[in-house]
Write a structure and sequence with these properties.
Helices cover about 50% and strands about 5% of the residues. It is mainly alpha-helical. The strands form three sheets. Strands 1-3-6 form a three-stranded antiparallel beta sheet, covered by helices on one side. Strands 2-8-7 form a three-stranded antiparallel beta sheet. The longest helix has about 35 residues, at about 185-220.
Length: about 375
C-alpha cells in the first residue's frame, strides 16, 4: 500500500499498471483490505467484481476525448447547477429553525447526483435505481449475499439505461458512448457499462463528499470560517485544503505492476504485486505539508494532493467537481450564515467503505436559536 505523496504519485501516473493480475509470484489473488477481507471467498469475489467496474484503465486517447468532460459542456452545466442548489436551499429553508437537517443526504449528495444524471443522460424514471445501484457499489462492508445482489442490480440498471438511450438517443454522454462503440455485441456493451459505472459513481459520490467535507471543516473550524468572511481566504482555498486533508477517495483498489516500479528510498514494487493507492494519506505527507499536515489550514501555501489522481489516471471530472463544490458552498453559507452542527463532531459516523471518505449523515441546525448551545468546534491553531 502506498501512503506518502511521491510514493503514491509514482504508480498512480505510471502507464504500465493494470487492473487485473499479471503473471508473477505475487499475482495469484491479492487480498483485499479490511473490511472486505473479512468476507467469505465468494463475497471477496463479488466485491472484487464491483470494484473492477470502478477501476478500468485510463481510456485510449481517442476514447478519452469522447469521455472527457469538455470545457464547454462543464460551463454549460453552471446555470443548471446553480438552479439545483437554489431549489435545494429553498427546500432546506422550509424546516423550522432548530429542526436538525441531514446536510449530506438532503443537500451535498443531491447536487452532483442531479448534475451527473443530466450530463450522462439518465432519464428521471431511472434515476433512483441507477443512483442507488452505483452508491451500493462502494459499500465494501456488504455481506456476500448483499454484494452479489448489488453487483447484479448494478449491471441490470446499466443495461436498462443503455436500452433506453439506444431507443431515444440525445445530446448526452451515453449517446456519445453508444455512437462510438456502435455494435450491440456483449464486449461493446461491457465497455459502455464500465464507463457508465465509473462516470456516474465518480460524478455523484466524489463531489458529494467534497461538498460535505468542506462544509464540515468550516463548521468545526470557526477561525477558518471567519477568514472566509473577511476575505483572507477564498472558497477555492477551502476546497483545495479539504481535497488535501479529507479527499473524497480514501483508497483505490486494486492495481497490479506490469514491471518493477521504483519508488525511491530503496523501495520497489515488484512486477505482479497488487497496489492499493492511499490517496487520502498522500495529502498528509509531513515531508511536503510539514508538521501541520493533519490540520485544516486553508491559508497554507502547499496544498498538493492526489485527490483527483495523477497523470494518465487524473479524474476526468475534476473541474466539474470543483465547480459544483464552489456553487454549493457559496450558496449554503450565504443562505444560512448561522449554520451549525446539531451534534458533536465525534458522533458523526463514517461511511462503511474503504474506498470513499465521508460520513453517513451530517445533522445541522440551519438557523439555531441563540439560546441553544452549538456543537463545540475544533480548536484552530
Amino acid at each position: 500500500m502506498t501512503e506518502r505523496h511521491r510514493r503514491t504519485e509514482a504508480p498512480t501516473g505510471f502507464t504500465r499498471i493494470l487492473e487485473e493480475p499479471v503473471p508473477g509470484p505475487a499475482s495469484a489473488l491479492a487480498p483485499l483490505p479490511a473490511p472486505a477481507c473479512r468476507l467469505a471467498p465468494e463475497g471477496v469475489g463479488r466485491v472484487r467484481e464491483r470494484l473492477h467496474l470502478l477501476r478500468r484503465p485510463a481510456p485510449a486517447p481517442a476514447r478519452r476525448h469522447r469521455l472527457s468532460l469538455r470545457p464547454h459542456r462543464i460551463e454549460a452545466l453552471r446555470p443548471r447547477t446553480e438552479a439545483i442548489v437554489d431549489t435545494l436551499l429553498h427546500q432546506l429553508a422550509q424546516h423550522t429553525p432548530d429542526q436538525p437537517v441531514d446536510l449530506f443526504n438532503s443537500f451535498a449528495r443531491a447536487i452532483p447526483a442531479r448534475v451527473i444524471c443530466d450530463l450522462v443522460g439518465v432519464p428521471e424514471p431511472l434515476r433512483p435505481r441507477v443512483l442507488s445501484a452505483t452508491a451500493a457499489a462502494l459499500h465494501t462492508a456488504a455481506t456476500p449475499d448483499q454484494a452479489k445482489a448489488g453487483l447484479n442490480e448494478l449491471i441490470d440498471s446499466m443495461k436498462a439505461l443503455i436500452q433506453d438511450r439506444r431507443a431515444t438517443p440525445g445530446e448526452d454522454l451515453i449517446s456519445d458512448l453508444l455512437a462510438e462503440h456502435g455494435s450491440a455485441d456483449h464486449l461493446a456493451e461491457q465497455h459502455v457499462i464500465s464507463a457508465l459505472v465509473l462516470v456516474i459513481t465518480a460524478g455523484s459520490e466524489t463531489p458529494a463528499n467534497l461538498i460535505a467535507s468542506t462544509a464540515l471543516a468550516l463548521l468545526t473550524h470557526h477561525g477558518q470560517r471567519a477568514l472566509l468572511r473577511t476575505g483572507d481566504i477564498t472558497w477555492n482555498d477551502a476546497i483545495e485544503e479539504t481535497l488535501r486533508l479529507e479527499g473524497p477517495i480514501m483508497h483505490m483498489p486494486l492495481r497490479y505492476a506490469v514491471e518493477d516500479i521504483p519508488l525511491g528510498g530503496g523501495v520497489t514494487i515488484p512486477r505482479g504485486d497488487a497496489i492499493l493507492l492511499g490517496f487520502a494519506a498522500a495529502g498528509r505527507d509531513p515531508s511536503i505539508h510539514g508538521d501541520s499536515a493533519d490540520t485544516f489550514e486553508a491559508r497554507r501555501l502547499e496544498k498538493t494532493h492526489l485527490a483527483f489522481g495523477h497523470d494518465a489516471h487524473y479524474c476526468l471530472g475534476a473541474t466539474l467537481g470543483r465547480m459544483e463544490a464552489d456553487i454549493a458552498l457559496r450558496g449554503l453559507f450565504h443562505r444560512f450564515p448561522r449554520l451549525r452542527l446539531a451534534v458533536p463532531p465525534q458522533e458523526l459516523l463514517p461511511q462503511e467503505s474503504f474506498v470513499v471518505n465521508g460520513h453517513q449523515s451530517i445533522p445541522v441546525a440551519l438557523r439555531p436559536s441563540r439560546r441553544r448551545k452549538a456543537a463545540a468546534p475544533v480548536r484552530d491553531r
